[in-house]
Amino acid sequence: QVQLVESGGGLVQAGGSLRLSCAASRSIFNIYTVGWYRQAPGKERELVASITAGGTSNYAESVKGRFTISRDNAKNTVYLQMNNLKPEDTAVYYCNYRYTWGQGTQVTVSS
């Protein structure tokens, strides 16, 4: 069973940047799609970005042009670079691989 550990969340002002990391316990990211999701209080969890085994990335409309997903297969890590953050980006961010979820990392954007 693979384990995923997210890190990099925090408190940032609007317009700022954060980079989230998702480290896997073994080499998996070149096998199947990995996604970053987020869940704000009172809202459903939503897909933010994903990257396929072949390296194709996809983004939610709300983050296109601001967020970038990437991966480092040698480090078994997927990243989410978040620029020009907005208060509406405030949420717990989760990494997902098939049926496995990380514990989440809180991102708070102040106005």
The topology string of helices and strands comes to: EEEEEEEEEEE
- The amount of helix comes to under 10%
Low-confidence stretches: none
Structural class: mainly beta
Rg from Cα: 13 Å
Mean pLDDT: 95
| Main sheet summary | 7 strands, mixed
Number of strands: 11
Shape: globular
Number of DSSP helices? Answer: 0
Span from first to last CA?
Answer: 40 Å
Task: Please report which band the strand proportion falls in: under 5%, 5-15%, 15-25%, 25-35%, 35-45% or over 45%.
Answer: over 45%
State the main characteristics.
mainly beta, 0% helix, 111 residues, 11 strands, four-stranded antiparallel β-sheet
Describe the protein.
The chain is mainly beta and 111 residues long. The protein has no helices and eleven strands. The protein has strands at residues 4-7, 10-13, 18-24, 34-39, 46-51, 57-59, 67-72, 77-82, 91-97, 100-101, 105-110. Strands 2, 4, 5, 6, 9, 10 and 11 form a seven-stranded mixed beta sheet that branches. Strands 1-3-8-7 form a four-stranded antiparallel beta sheet, with no helix packed on it. The model has no long low-confidence stretch (mean pLDDT 95).
Care to give the gist of this entry?
The chain is 0% helix and 51% strand.
